[in-house]
């Protein structure tokens, strides 16, 4: 019940803020101030129904069909790269669908990989301490998916997926010494990915000194800080944001927390963070009381995915991390992300029903 109430509370805050943050831009671009809010309401409705449906499906169903789910996710990741099938938005070929109603396969790969990895590790936990038999096969599969996601390219989603899977593998019992060695290789590879794309290098330099290019790569973070600063303790008031007046680009997506902080202040931002903390606490409790390893690993993965996205999104908004294009769970506008998160909560709810008392 706590998990449901917290999730619905975050969803309600998100609906209010999507409308508040997007009304000006939606009115200008689509002549309808409710354009984004109506679509978010539709996504939320589908997601909530999906959450309650999934909560009534025995989570072992996903274990039984883990391989099929993963294969389907891989097929979608390949299809999105096919010209004419995948839709290009913002320079990334990451969507399949028609117009505004489309899905983002990389989002669903996060959950699909989580399900398969949880099953594989539950069945082969004794091998996870072996570098060749345990760590290499699991990480090899994860980085195959990461490679396909990077062809779109979508570094943010790929980073969340890899981070989530690494946490699951670590909880399963992988040796720290193996992680340390791979960590060095991973950092080198991550640096290589950044260096291979000029726009990613610009994001790093703008993160270190956004005022070096205030009208270019540093524009978003500067406008985000201009939103948060005047918010003060109690905010300017709901609907009273100044930065949503064409200053902060599309504030209903990745930077919605900046508008929330501007309108509701430090108190509002802290309230949202506390809601996320309560959700994560409840998720950890479910993972600890799960009746089997599969349930434990899957719950850990879901909690980790939400936690990583929250930390990265808020970190970007307040200037602690480079801009990555990651949504804030349950709050940011976006159909695939919102639906995925609500389905993931549905899985958590079902695991909790089977929890050891």
SSE diagram, text form:
Blueprint: H1 2-30, H2 35-55, H3 60-64, H4 66-79, E1 86-89, E2 92-98, E3 101-103, H5 105-123, H6 131-150, H7 155-171, H8 176-196, H9 198-208, H10 219-231, H11 256-289, H12 293-317, H13 335-353
Antiparallel strand pairs: 1-2, 2-3
Helix pairs in contact: 1-2, 1-11, 2-13, 4-5, 5-6, 5-7, 5-12, 5-13, 6-7, 7-12, 8-9, 10-11, 11-12, 11-13, 12-13
| N-to-C CA distance | 16 Å
Counting helices, strands and paired strands, the structural category is mainly alpha
Number of helices: 13
In sequence order, what are the helices and strands, one letter per element? HHHHEEEHHHHHHHHH
- Give start-end ranges of low-pLDDT stretches: none
Mean pLDDT: 87
Radius of gyration: 20 Å
Shape: globular
- In order across it, which strands form the biggest sheet? 1-2-3
Beta-strand content estimate: under 5%
Question: Top keywords for this entry?
Answer:
mainly alpha, three-stranded antiparallel β-sheet, 4% strand
Characterization of the model:
There is one protein chain. The chain has about 350 residues and is mainly α. About 70% of the residues lie in helices and about 5% in strands. The protein has helices at about 1-30, 35-55, 60-65, 65-80, 105-125, 130-150, 155-170, 175-195, 200-210, 220-230, 255-290, 295-315, 335-355, and strands spanning about 85-90, 90-100, 100-105. The protein has a three-stranded antiparallel sheet with strand order 1-2-3. A hairpin with a 2-residue loop joins strand 2 and strand 3 (about 100-105). Helix 4 runs antiparallel to helix 5 and helix 5 runs antiparallel to helix 6. It is globular, with a radius of gyration of 20 Å.
